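STRUCTURE:
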C-alpha cells in the first residue's frame, strides 16, 4: 500500500499492535482454509517411506483469575503451564536419511490429543498416504499417542504390512538407566555395564531378555519402582523391533520431533515472563510450524485464497 520499503518499515515500526493483529488474522485465515480445502497436495508420498511423529511442548497461558481487578483496573491472571501438541510428517530415502527435496509437514495445536490427530489425519489423507511404501509411527512412550495410532491407521485405510510402530530407542535406553540407578547396592561401573549390556540386547531385538533382566533385579527397597519400569518395557514390547527397523534402514530415534518442538515452541513461545492468550498462541504455533518446515509459501496461498477471504 505504501510507496517504498523504507516507508513501509517506518509505518510498521511505529505500530506493533497492527503488525500483531495482521499476523493473528493471517494465521486464522490459513487455518480456516486448511479446514475447508479437501484437495490433494502437490507433494506425493507414493512409493516413498514416510515417518510420522508427535510430541508435546510447554508454554504458559494467560488465564483469567477470579477476584477483584488491580488498582489500575486490569484483570488478574495466572500463568498456567499448558502442553501444545506438535506433529511432523517427513520422508526418508533408502539410507534412512531425511529427504531434502521433500519439505516436512509440521503443525501444532493447544486443543489436545484428539485435535492434533485430526490434523494428522487431514495431512495424511491429502498426501494420499495409502500409496506410500512404508509408514513408520515413532514416538516416546506417551499413552495419548499410542492409543490413537491404531484408530488413525484404521481410519486412513492403511494395510498392516505398510505400517510400523516404534518406541524411540533413546527413551527406552533412558528407562534402562533409571532401572540401573535404582540399584543402590551397585557400583557406578556395575550400573554402566548392566545398562550397556541391555542396550545391546535391545538393538539385537532381544526384548524378552531385557524384560527378564529387569525382572531378575526386581527386589529390595526399590522393587516397586523397578516393577514400574519392567511394566513399561512389557507394555511397549511390540514397539521395540529395533533390529528389524535397522535392517530396513529406517530411523529408530525421534530426534526430528524433539528438534521440531524446540524450534517451533521453545525458541519462541516458551521463556521467562512469556504469557500467551490461547488464540494468540494458536496463531503463532501455526505460523512458526509452516515457516520452520520451509512451507511458508504454502501457508501464504492458504491465507490469501479466495475461499479463506470470503469465509473470514
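SEQUENCE:
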Amino acid at each position: 500500500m505504501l510507496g517504498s520499503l523504507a516507508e513501509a518499515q517506518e509505518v510498521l515500526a511505529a505500530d506493533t499492535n497492527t503488525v500483531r493483529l495482521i499476523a493473528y488474522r493471517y494465521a486464522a485465515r490459513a487455518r480456516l482454509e486448511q479446514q475447508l480445502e479437501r484437495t490433494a497436495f502437490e507433494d506425493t508420498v507414493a512409493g516413498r517411506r514416510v515417518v510420522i511423529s508427535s510430541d508435546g511442548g510447554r508454554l504458559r497461558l494467560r488465564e483469567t483469575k477470579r477476584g477483584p481487578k488491580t488498582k489500575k483496573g486490569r484483570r488478574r491472571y495466572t500463568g498456567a503451564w499448558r502442553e501444545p501438541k506438535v506433529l511432523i510428517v517427513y520422508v526418508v530415502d533408502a539410507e534412512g536419511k531425511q529427504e531434502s527435496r521433500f519439505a516436512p509437514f509440521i503443525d501444532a495445536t493447544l486443543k489436545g490429543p484428539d485435535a492434533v490427530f485430526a490434523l494428522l489425519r487431514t495431512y495424511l489423507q491429502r498426501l494420499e498416504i495409502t500409496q506410500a511404501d512404508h509408514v513408520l509411527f515413532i514416538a516416546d512412550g506417551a499413552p495419548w499417542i499410542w492409543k490413537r495410532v491404531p484408530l488413525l491407521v484404521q481410519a486412513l485405510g492403511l494395510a498392516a504390512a505398510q505400517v510400523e510402530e516404534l518406541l524411540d530407542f533413546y527413551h527406552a535406553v533412558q528407562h534402562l538407566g533409571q532401572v540401573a540407578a535404582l540399584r543402590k547396592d551397585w557400583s557406578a561401573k556395575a550400573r554402566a555395564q548392566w545398562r550397556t549390556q541391555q542396550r545391546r540386547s535391545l538393538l539385537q531385538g532381544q526384548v524378552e531378555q531385557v524384560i527378564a533382566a529387569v525382572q531378575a533385579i526386581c527386589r529390595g527397597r526399590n522393587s516397586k519402582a523397578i516393577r514400574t519400569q519392567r511394566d513399561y518395557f512389557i507394555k511397549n514390547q511390540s514397539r521395540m523391533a529395533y533390529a528389524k527397523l535397522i535392517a530396513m534402514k529406517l530411523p529408530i530415534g525421534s530426534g526430528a520431533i524433539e528438534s521440531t518442538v524446540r524450534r517451533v515452541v521453545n525458541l519462541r513461545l516458551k521463556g521467562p515472563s512469556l504469557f500467551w492468550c490461547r488464540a494468540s498462541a494458536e496463531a503463532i504455533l501455526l505460523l512458526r510450524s509452516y515457516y520452520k518446515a520451509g512451507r511458508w509459501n504454502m501457508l501464504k496461498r492458504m491465507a490469501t485464497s479466495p475461499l479463506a477471504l470470503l469465509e473470514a
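REMARK: The mean pLDDT is 92.
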